């Protein structure tokens, strides 16, 4: 370890208290700026787009949970309460930057231009789904939008994001990778592996740890004993910052700086957004079994959307009238898309064996032939595909 | 042609792949300046720079995940797992991520350029954790290709094909042959096709099938049987997934007998899959039950390595049993 100038002669242990991590916070709940806080460079057009996309996602989440309850979708997962953490980060990146998400970042997709119909096609596993109907709802992906297809296993995208970013660096691209994950995923081995590799191999990747308080039912107090996720970044040699995840300006300010660092220095950066998962983990979960109404209400008062709205109205960049119109149009857009896209058929049966490899090898062709013959024999039992030629 | 051992052939293939395509990147533990614990990557960092041939932290799951991301970006990573015995921390990244990358995205994304290289097999007094043959775990995973060379010539031709194949490939290198096997290898760039078995010796009475580190024992057993007047057709499978069923099927239809042999443990070994498939296709041609000569269903031993191994005598006995069934 070479020369160690910082020697001690008594066994004094260091603790997290020796490294208190501050939280970047610019906006108060009422939308006013904290004293000394500076508004990050953010023009009216972008601010409005961010806000519009946030309320769109709130609408989408509400409508899709309702659709799931009606049996029109098998599964859903909301972003409710964390819209600012996602929107404030994605807005600081360019379309050329790759996004590798966990599964609660639909706001980032909307920001990049994913359409209501594209959301529906994926969730309905129909023949227009870019993923060919192969994954459960909310596992979106789009090459055109540089949004890596979501996979259910947690934290696997973290070392992958390091590798992706390394590839961007090798190619000399003026681009980086934006990687999202949750407080629970940060307990996986892939988190440690990925952060360490990103740091050692100097990968231009911005990690966003969405600390929303819960991994399904497990509160962070049962997830880790240290000081959140940001403290770990320091241990890996990664510049790290903690921000109020319900404060869109704070998140955006941190993300703009993080991207600059990642691109200029070819280094990873970690942002921990402190927020709260206002909804259930998923449509299969009921939080009343593990947390109180009071706790939820406390966080509802800190709603990131209400906070941004107050700030926008304060500077006359938004009005109640615009809000009303936007909400109405988004509800209609989402419902129209659901209605039109749920009429689409399932993907063709031949898709079953495609993309396992670049071309189906002999054994898959054989198995497909046998399956087709079987379906032809019992067409009534396989109505979704027996009608195909 | 040049004389090379299996390691030199691997090193030569990597050198050619890196010279041919600047997107080829080698990564793994100790593979940089040191050239890897077996020296498979010797001089590559010196020649192509640290950015393209580099040490990673000691984390197999990290190496695998990193390589998956790198491949998704369009690079062509060749990731080394130092010993196949240590590939298990990377299992999730290989079977749940790499193998399913193209499928789950509907071909929006892929890891076409991805190759994992890893030394496998016994014969080096490596005990439980430097001797394993874990190929069957991966052959159970759609989306992967699994390749095992047995000679320097194959090692070079198959590795170049694996690196350039548009699918994730696991390349298991028989480490017992790294320096022990020597052969003539073309110096120029060449590829051997994946998915094709090689008929090493033609014969009439029984088909003997193996791959990688089991080929020497198989050939010695064939020689022993030959002396007894038994004509063996010796086949090297070379690619385990997807495997060349046609070559095996037509051979067994000719000989009427099949023996499969691997070092990996018996139960759940890949020999079982081959036996099942061949009996489905060749049932009426078979003169005797398909024979499997494999490792025991124990962890890989140390003191009793010799007894554990499916050596030429065990294979020879199984050949005779099959002939006299």
Mean pLDDT of chain B: 98
Number of strands of chain B: 14
Q: Order of strands in the sheet with the most strands of chain A?
A: 1-7-8-4-3-2
N/C terminus separation of chain A: 70 Å
Helix-strand makeup class of chain B: alpha/beta
Please compute the radius of gyration of chain A using only Cα atoms. 23 Å
Helical percentage of chain B:
25-40%
Q: What is the element string of chain B, with H for helices and E for strands?
A: EHEHEHEHHEHEHEEEEHEEHEHEHH
The largest sheet of chain B is: 7 strands, mixed
Largest interface: A-B, 50 and 49 residues
Characteristic terms for this protein:
heterodimer; A: 389 residues; alpha/beta; Rossmann fold; six-stranded parallel beta sheet; 9% strand; globular; B: 325 residues; seven-stranded mixed beta sheet; five-stranded mixed beta sheet; 12 helices; 14 strands; 36% helix
Structural overview:
The complex is a heterodimer of chains A (389) and B (325). Chain A has 389 residues and is an alpha/beta fold. Chain A folds into two domains: 22-30 and 39-341, Rossmann fold, CATH 3.40.50.970; 349-381. Chain A has helices at residues 44-69, 83-90, 106-112, 116-123, 157-170, 189-200, 230-236, 248-265, 293-300, 304-314, 320-341, 362-377; strands at 23-24, 98-100, 177-182, 205-211, 214-215, 218-219, 239-244, 269-274. In chain A, helix 4 crosses helix 11 and helix 5 (157-170) packs parallel to helix 6. The radius of gyration of chain A is 23 Å and the shape is globular. Chain A starts with 22 loop residues before the first strand and ends in a 12-residue tail after the last helix. With 325 residues, chain B is α/β, with parallel strands linked by helices. Chain B folds into two domains: 2-185, Rossmann fold, CATH 3.40.50; 198-323, Rossmann fold (3-Layer(aba) Sandwich). Chain B has helices at residues 6-20, 44-48, 60-73, 91-98, 101-104, 135-139, 152-164, 215-227, 245-255, 270-282, 305-308, 312-323, and strands at residues 2-5, 24-28, 53-55, 76-80, 115-120, 145-147, 169-174, 182-185, 198-201, 206-210, 232-236, 239-241, 258-265, 291-295. Chain B starts with a strand and ends with a helix. In chain B, helix 8 crosses helix 12 and helix 9 crosses helix 10 (270-282). Helices cover 36% and strands 20% of the residues of chain B. Chains A and B meet through helix 5, helix 6 and helix 12 of A and helix 3, helix 4 and helix 5 of B.
């Amino acid at each position: 370890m070479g020369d160690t100038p910082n020697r001690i002669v008594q066994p004094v242990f260091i603790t997290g208290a020796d490294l208190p991590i501050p939280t970047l916070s610019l906006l108060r709940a009422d939308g006013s700026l904290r004293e000394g806080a500076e508004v990050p460079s953010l023009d009216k057009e972008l601010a409005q787009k961010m806000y519009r996309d946030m309320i769109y996602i709130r609408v989408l989440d509400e409508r899709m949970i309702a659709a799931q309850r009606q049996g029109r979708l098998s599964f859903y997962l909301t972003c409710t309460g964390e819209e600012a953490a996602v929107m404030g980060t994605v807005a600081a990146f360019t379309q050329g930057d790759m996004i590798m998400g966990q599964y609660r970042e639909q706001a980032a997709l909307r920001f990049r231009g994913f359409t209501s119909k594209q959301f529906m096609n994926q969730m309905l596993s129909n023949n227009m789904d870019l993923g060919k109907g192969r994954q459960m709802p909310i596992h979106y992906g789009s090459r055109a939008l540089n949004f890596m297809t979501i996979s259910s296993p947690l934290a696997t995208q973290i070392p992958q994001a390091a590798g992706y970013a390394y590839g961007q660096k090798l190619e000399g691209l003026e681009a980086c990778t934006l990687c999202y994950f949750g407080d629970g995923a940060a307990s996986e081995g892939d988190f440690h592996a990925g952060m360490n590799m990103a740091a050692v191999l100097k990968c231009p990747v911005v990690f966003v740890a969405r600390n929303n308080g819960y991994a399904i039912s497990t509160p962070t107090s049962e997830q880790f004993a240290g000081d959140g996720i940001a403290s770990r970044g320091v241990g890996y040699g990664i510049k790290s910052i903690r921000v109020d995840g319900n404060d869109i300006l704070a998140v955006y300010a941190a993300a703009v700086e993080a991207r600059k660092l990642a691109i200029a220095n070819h280094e990873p950066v970690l942002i921990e957004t402190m927020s709260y998962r206002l909804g259930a983990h998923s449509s299969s979960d009921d939080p009343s079994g593990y947390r109180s109404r009071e706790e939820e209400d406390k966080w509802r008062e800190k709603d990131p959307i209400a906070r941004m709205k107050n700030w926008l109205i304060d500077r006359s960049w938004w009005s109640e009238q615009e809000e009303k119109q936007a909400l109405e149009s988004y509800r209609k857009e989402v419902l129209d898309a659901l209605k039109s896209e749920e009429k689409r058929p399932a993907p063709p049966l031949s898709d079953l064996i495609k993309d396992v490899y670049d071309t189906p090898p002999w054994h898959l062709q054989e198995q497909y032939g046998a399956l087709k013959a079987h379906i032809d024999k019992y067409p009534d039992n396989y109505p979704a595909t027996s009608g195909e030629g | 042609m040049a004389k090379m051992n299996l390691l030199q052939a691997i090193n030569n293939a990597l050198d050619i792949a890196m010279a041919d395509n600047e997107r080829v990147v080698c990564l793994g533990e100790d593979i940089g300046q040191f050239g890897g614990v077996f020296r498979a990557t010797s001089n590559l960092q010196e020649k192509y720079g640290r950015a393209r041939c580099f040490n990673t932290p000691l984390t197999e799951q990290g190496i695998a995940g990193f390589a998956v991301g790198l491949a998704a970006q369009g690079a062509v990573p060749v990731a080394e797992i130092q010993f196949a015995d240590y590939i298990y921390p990377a299992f999730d990244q290989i079977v749940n991520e790499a193998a399913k990358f193209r499928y789950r995205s509907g071909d929006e994304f892929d890891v076409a350029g991805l190759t994992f290289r890893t030394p496998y097999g016994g014969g080096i007094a490596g005990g439980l954790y430097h001797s394993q043959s874990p190929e069957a775990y991966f052959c159970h995973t759609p989306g992967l290709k699994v390749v095992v060379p047995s000679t320097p010539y194959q090692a070079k031709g198959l590795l170049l094909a694996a690196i350039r194949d548009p699918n994730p490939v696991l390349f298991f290198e028989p480490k017992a042959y790294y320096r022990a096997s020597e052969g003539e290898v073309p110096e120029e760039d060449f590829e051997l096709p994946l998915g094709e078995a090689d008929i090493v010796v033609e014969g009439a009475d029984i088909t003997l099938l193996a791959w990688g580190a089991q080929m020497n024992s198989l050939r010695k057993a064939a020689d022993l049987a030959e002396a007894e007047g038994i004509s063996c057709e010796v086949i090297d499978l070379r690619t385990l997934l997807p495997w060349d069923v046609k070559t095996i099927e037509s051979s067994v239809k000719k000989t009427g007998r099949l023996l499969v042999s691997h070092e990996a443990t018996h139960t759940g070994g890949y020999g079982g899959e081959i036996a099942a498939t061949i009996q489905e296709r060749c049932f009426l041609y078979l003169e005797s039950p398909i024979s499997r000569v494999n490792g025991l269903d124990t962890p890989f031993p140390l003191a009793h390595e010799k007894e554990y191994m499916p050596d030429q005598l065990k294979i020879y006995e199984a050949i005779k049993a099959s002939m006299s069934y």
